[in-house]
Model the fold of this input.
Amino acid sequence: MKKLLLLSLMMMVPMFAQAAGGPSVALDSIEVDASDHSSLQRGMKTYVNYCLGCHTAQYQRYSRAAEDLHMPEDLVVENLIFSGQKIGEQMTSAMDPKVSAKWFGAAPPDLTNEVNLRGADWIYTYLRTFYVDDSRPYGVNNVVFPSVGMPNVLAELQGIQSKSCGEVSEYDTHGNPAVDGVTGKAITHQSCDILTVEEGSGSMTPAQFDATIYDLTNFMAYMSKPYKTDSHRIGLWAILFCLMMTVLFYFLKKEFWRDIH
Done:
C-alpha cells in the first residue's frame, strides 16, 4: 500500500511542476466551439495563408478537415491547397526544416497538438501580444513568450503594436472594474504591458483582428481534438444505452429474486 501511495505521489510531481511553471501574465480567456463550422472554416483559411508556410500540421489531413468542417473537397483543393498536394495528404509545410532552423535558430514546431500542449487561452493571447522591439532579430517581441524567435506574420492584419507603461484597472470576478469600498475610486495598478496599435497601420480593426485570431485558435483547437464532436455524440448514446440497460437489469434482478423473498 505504501509503495502504491509513493508511486502516485511521484506521478503527480510533473503536474505540480507544470502548474508552478505557468505563464506570469494574465491570459485572455476564450471558449472554443468545435460545432461552429463557419468559424473553423475561417480559421483554416487563416492558418493556410499565414501559418502553413513555416508550421506543419502533419497529423491533420486536408480531406478530414474538409469532411469535419463541411467543405466540398473541390473548393478545398482550389482555395486552400497551394503546394500541389492531394486532398488526402497531410497539411505539411514546403519549407525545409534545416533551412528554417538556420533562419530562426530552431525549426518551427508542428502545430497539430499545440493547443493540447499550451491551451487555447495561451495561443489566443500569444498571437495578439506581439509588439515592436528593435532589440530583437525580427524587430518584435511577445508579452506571453518573451524573447520569441518568431516574426509577427500577422502584422499586416493587426498593424504596428507598441508596449508602454501606465495605470490599468483591476477587475472583480464578474469582469467589472474593481472599486475601493472606502473611497469609491477605481482600483488600478502600474503595468508595463499596455499594448497599443497604431491607428490605420493594419488592414483590420482591433475587433476584427481579435475575431480572426479567435477563429484561428478555434481551428487549432479542432486540429488537436478532431474527434471531439464525434466523442460527444457517441458519449450521449452510450449514456442512454447504460440508462436503458440499468432499467432492464433492475427488473431482471427483481424477477430472479422474486421467489427467494
